[in-house]
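yo

u said u wanted the structure for the complex thing, so here. seqs first:
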Amino acid sequence: MSTPSPGERAPSPWEIVQLARHPQRPKLDDYLAGLFTEVVELHGDRLFGDDPALFCGLARFRGEPVVVVGHRKGRETRENVERRWGMPNPEGYRKAVRVMHLAEKRGLPVVSLVDTPAAYPGIEAEERGQAEAIARSILVMSRLRTPIVVAVTGEGGSGGALGIAVGDRVLMMEYAIYSVIPPEGCAAILWRDAERREEAAAALKLTARDLLALGVVDEIIPEPPGGAHEDPVRALEAVAQALARTLDTLRREPVDELVARRYAKYRGMGQFVEVRP
Amino acid sequence: MWDWIRRPKYASTERRDIPAGLWVKCPKCGRPVYRKELERNLKVCPHCHHHHRLSGPERLALLVDEGSFVEWDAELRSLDPLGFPEYAARYEEAVERTGRYDAAICGEGTIHGVRAALAVLDFAFLGGSMGSVVGEKVARTFERASERGLPVVACSASGGARMQEGALSLMQMAKTCAAVARLHEAGLPYLSVLCDPTTGGVAASFAMLGDVHIAEPGALIGFAGPRVIEQTMHQKLPEGFQTAEFLLRHGMVDLIVPRSALKDTVARILRLLGCPVEERTSADEHAVAR
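structre next:
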């Protein structure tokens, strides 16, 4: 693992990919323990089952009740197998939709923590409508009448991430990534050579800095030198501060304005030109 | 039958997804089909009924009443926002080949006299992939329909989000879903027609959010590509996995409609959902009564 040590040059996009995927990087369970109190996990989508790869629950953040949703990678192999390395099945997204509707009903803000390689590409996921589950969750989040703050803490893997990542403010950790396709997959398609992943990582503009410039994320949460795993306490504190500041602002906004602004924000994304024929 | 769809002035070459020869080999049954016969048969193989892919203009001509279609936003084109390797050249090549900017054709027209907003994806343009332009055009279509009180008929044929525009393509999923939500809030119907193939970021956004989902026979529809799933699961995929018939069985589509009945079915559903039939002026008046 070529992790740059403090004081060295800024890491390359491919090095940032490795930091985002670092096995010691703080995960959802670390955030639950470090940032929240009185955590009550809520299970099941009421339709088919419960997905351990996507956490949903009630909790307090700095004393105030919130709804937490987030991808849940495991800390070791057995947990990771059970949680499919944080790759949700449709039940995960449907559970999130159910719990976010509860947040809306009770006027609680939603805190979404994003860290997944992808939505799970499996036979059963397809049978139960992975595409529909993700689409529905995106639609619900785009109109939910309560504040939503998203923090991309590790891997923002394509539609699997976006399924719980539509929000009023999207924060992204300095060495997290967010991409339409993993660099390996991109290299395989583009050059028929997955080994050219470093080039692909650079081309995809998947770092926090790139995505802030493109308007995809709203704010970068700084990390300790060498990455969040080098000083998890400091990393969690930076996330807590950013969340607290954002929630303070969003809580003060009338909900109609909040939803209208959220619509306008996503409506404005993308770059194109109108050519005169 | 689709000659009347105007070719844009900037078209330099005609697109062809059927070889220039007189005979075409059906990729499904392998039998030779006389090209003219295939065209007459709406590109459905007369032997095995395999539905060959239609281009965007062909799909549009199949659905809307002759002369009724007014296109919106045909002049939108991509900016290559990431400066992505080979994208500019591939984009230009697709513009040259299809005579259109980007992979969505949007506008309004009548379907057996029922006025509707339409969004049609063209698989021939970079695999029908959704980048900024497709996302913008689809979102505008849903917004205009919401304002004008029109239903939306979207026909998807896409490999998903466009890799070459990175996370901006991903954000088009959020943009289009939000616009679909507006149409639903306005109480207007949305018919999603799922054509071969509809996968990835298009399936996981507006394509799967219709009030009614109509699939073409045999169409590949799903989130993850079959090869990716095979690699993850380390097993052979079951026969017919991710086909329209598979989705019908698993409750993801309402009906599978052969191409010859698509227009009649779409019009019937729109009428049943209370969309008005306009005064008839065009030639296919007789079809309304069906």
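The beta strands of chain B are 23-25, 32-34, 70-72, 76-78, 104-111, 114-121, 152-158, 190-198, 212-215, 255-256. The two ends of chain B are 20 Å apart (CA to CA).
cya
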